[in-house]
Amino acid sequence: MKHNHLHQYLLLLGDHSMILGHRLSELCGHGPSLETDIALTNISLDLFGQVRSYFQYAAKIEGGDATEDSIAYLRHERKYLSSTILEQENTDFAHVIVRQFLFDVYHRLLLEELQNSKDDQIAAIATKSLKEVKYHLRFSTSWMNRLGAGTEESNQRMQVALDYLLPMAHELVTASEVENAVKIEGIAPDLDVLSIEFWAQVKAVIQESNLKYPEFKNRVVRGKQGIHSEHMGRLLSEFQYMQRAYPNMQW
Amino acid sequence: MNKEWPLYEVFIRSKNGLEHRHVGSLHAADDQMALENARDVYTRRQEGVSIWVVESSQITASNPENQGELFEPAADKVYRHPTFYNLPDEVDHM
To answer: ipTM value of the model?
Structure first.
């Protein structure tokens, strides 16, 4: 395929929004309050809107029978290129917020750069999505502050979530083979540069939220290469259920 | 200890030039959260360009029991309505 790197990169971008969007959709009707439930579902819908743009574009490149749905639902686990942190379970609200916050910081920095992508369509999607993601970051940052500097229990739960999730965050800002290839083609930014700003912003919010930046070693995670944690299989079995049970079904 | 978050009243301005209108209420732990919750609950279908939130307990309200003395005396004073003027067609929002 002529545009192989671009195609893979679109899957990677879409998978990041999609896997997190699915995790958030699991909270629909289960949020800690009605207001927060709607907020998280709104974010999920924003993310799925982005997924559609990426996968429609990818389907066009792929040609043949490919559609946004076949790309979303009919791949095997090893073909999903989302970072491992995103498929982690909701566990409690602290985990939901910390996972969201780490992704939002990365996501905003990435989209700001992608606005200048040599690929016009990616640039257009980035410009549209950036407004949404700025709000996601505002939402998750305010909850980091509120829970980190809240009660003893909320602080402790946030710390547990942070200690668990932070060792996986490096994958977001560590370039995979695909990302390196599209960087060279001017389609995507240099993640080494982006990672400096990423860690600076993450550290600043951890500090202002009365949380401790934990001592940690990066966990070996290879979600972007399609090698996922034990949570991904269960996630996909639910996510893909309808298309597997009723092939080609439509609403 | 009361575990409910305080109640807030939400006012939305639907477009520039119009006034903020009361649209409903919601629960939030602080002012910032009230603003964000209002955005998510009340403006997801493009209902607004500006939001005000205020803790419900900060509002002084009239008592329904006093309806008679407060409002009924206005009922028979039709001359207080500006209905005796002819408005030009160009005047909106009156």
So the answer is: 0.76
